[in-house]
Structures are given as C-alpha cells and as structure tokens.
C-alpha cells in the first residue's frame, strides 16, 4: 500500500480507491504556493505505480478551486539572487510546468471539481484533468497578461485543451468567463447548477471509472497523450504492442472472460 507524503497545504483522503486532494489555502483562494505545488507533485509521485488508486479528485477548500500562482512567492523569486547555475524565477516558473505534466500524465483518472475562482495555474489544472466538472457560476480566467506576464507554463496545455485559435483569443484578452462558456470551449465536460449537483455528477463519473480496468486506463491515457507527439506509424506500432500486452495480461484475460461469461469483471463496482 502506498505511503502518502505529508501535505501541509492540502487535505488528502483515500476512500474506496479514490484519492481526494483538496487545496487547503482558503484565505488565499487556494493560490498555488510553492508549498502547495510541492505537495501536489510529491503526492502524484507517490501514487504513480499504485493501480489500487483508481482516480484522483482535485478540488479547493472554501468555495474556490485555485486562484493561480501565489503573487508573494513570485515576488520572493524575483528578489532572490541569480547565480551562474540558477535563476530563481526560471526555477519557480518551470516548477509549474513540472506539476502540470505530472498531473497530465498520471496513470490514474484525474477529475477536477471546480467552484469559484479558476485562474492561472488553476486554469492549467483544469486543462490537464481527464474529467472537469464545474458549477455554472465558476469564474475562469487567464489573468497573467493583465499582470504584465505570459501564461508561460500553462499555455501549451491550454492549446491542447481548447485549440490554438481559442487559446490565442483567451491569452491576449485575459479571458474571463463562467462555467457555461467553459463547456462551450471544451474546457470542462459537465456544468452543474449547485454544489449538490456537482457531488452527484462526481459520484456518477467515479462509478463509470470503476467499471474500467485501472491498467487499461493508464495505457489508454499514455497512447492518447502521445498522439500529437509522435510519428503516426511509431505511435500505432507502440499502441499495437500495448494492446497485445494488455490482452495477454491479467486484466485483458479477466475482462474478455467476464464478457463471454456475462458477468462483471473483478475490478468493477458491484451493485
């Protein structure tokens, strides 16, 4: 069983194969401090090989998802001295990209449960979730350019999520919009009217994920994420090898036999 790291800036709870990771800086609207960034990275590192954890639910305490990077940490990085081998501002910015990539490439299904402010780094986390569920009055935005900054580490993931033309518009206009517009853009998958409906939708999505084999989900994500990064023939060759390995493995054997025998496979939730 995975030993979860300490997370001073987040509430972490494992229930029925689902890791609930709650950003716990409500006074700062869950702005992504260096500490919270490290908590998130350390947690995803810890669970990377654990297929008993089927999904990770990301959410924020106090009614906000995440209001982006912590401005105080940005100021501290700017004031820190540069050396021949290190630039604190570059290191600070690049750490966001590392975190987003870890979440994006996690073998588990990742779900963003979105309320309130979804800005900057929070916007980026929405872009790298497998399933994003938002309340209608959530407030999305890319405020960086209004601060004289580019959304540097977030931008590639925004382009992948909503496409280049919409990403350009949002970037240069500092895009601000609600849950309905987020759904139109393809940023989120479901928009709910209130907190109760949000939780009900989460339960529905988790039920669907539990019907899927965990290793098959991990391989599926890896193949899909490689679509835009590889030569098409190389990608299809790799996918064929992945398929063969899965078909011959425990999950493929159990899943196909369960289908033939007209029963649920052993990983699926029982009614």
UniProtKB/TrEMBL annotation:
<dbReference type="InterPro" id="IPR029045">
    <property type="entry name" value="ClpP/crotonase-like_dom_sf"/>
</dbReference>
<dbReference type="GO" id="GO:0003824">
    <property type="term" value="F:catalytic activity"/>
</dbReference>
<comment type="similarity">
    <text>Belongs to the enoyl-CoA hydratase/isomerase family.</text>
</comment>
<dbReference type="Pfam" id="PF00378">
    <property type="entry name" value="ECH_1"/>
</dbReference>
<dbReference type="InterPro" id="IPR014748">
    <property type="entry name" value="Enoyl-CoA_hydra_C"/>
</dbReference>
<dbReference type="InterPro" id="IPR051683">
    <property type="entry name" value="Enoyl-CoA_Hydratase/Isomerase"/>
</dbReference>
<protein>
    <submittedName>
        <fullName>Enoyl-CoA hydratase</fullName>
    </submittedName>
</protein>
<dbReference type="InterPro" id="IPR001753">
    <property type="entry name" value="Enoyl-CoA_hydra/iso"/>
</dbReference>
<dbReference type="GO" id="GO:0008300">
    <property type="term" value="P:isoprenoid catabolic process"/>
</dbReference>
């Amino acid at each position: 069983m995975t030993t979860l790291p300490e997370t001073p800036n987040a509430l972490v709870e494992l229930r029925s194969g689902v890791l609930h990771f709650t950003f716990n800086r409500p006074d700062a609207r869950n702005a992504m401090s260096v500490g919270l960034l490290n908590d998130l990275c350390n947690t995803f590192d810890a669970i990377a090989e654990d297929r008993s954890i089927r999904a990770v639910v990301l959410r924020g305490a106090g009614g906000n998802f995440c209001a982006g990077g912590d401005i105080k940490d940005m100021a501290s990085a700017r004031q820190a001295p540069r050396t021949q081998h290190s630039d604190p501002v570059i290191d600070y910015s690049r750490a966001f990209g590392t975190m987003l990539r870890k979440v994006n490439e996690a073998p588990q299904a990742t779900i963003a449960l979105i309320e309130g402010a979804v800005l900057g780094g929070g916007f980026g986390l929405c872009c790298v979730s497998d399933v994003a569920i938002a309340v209608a009055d959530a407030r999305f935005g890319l405020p960086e350019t209004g601060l004289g900054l580019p959304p540097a580490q977030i931008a590639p993931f925004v382009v992948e999520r909503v496409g280049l033309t919409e990403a350009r518009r949002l970037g240069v206009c500092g895009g601000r919009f609600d849950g309905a517009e987020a759904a139109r853009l393809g940023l989120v998958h479901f928009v709910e009217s209130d907190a109760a409906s949000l939780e009900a939708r989460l339960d529905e999505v988790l039920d669907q994920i539990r019907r899927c084999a965990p290793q098959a989900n991990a391989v599926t994500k890896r193949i899909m994420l490689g679509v835009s990064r590889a030569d098409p023939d190389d990608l299809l060759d790799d996918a064929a090898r992945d398929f063969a390995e899965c078909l011959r493995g425990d999950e493929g054997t159990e899943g196909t036999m369960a289908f033939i025998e007209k029963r649920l496979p052993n990983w699926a939730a029982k009614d």
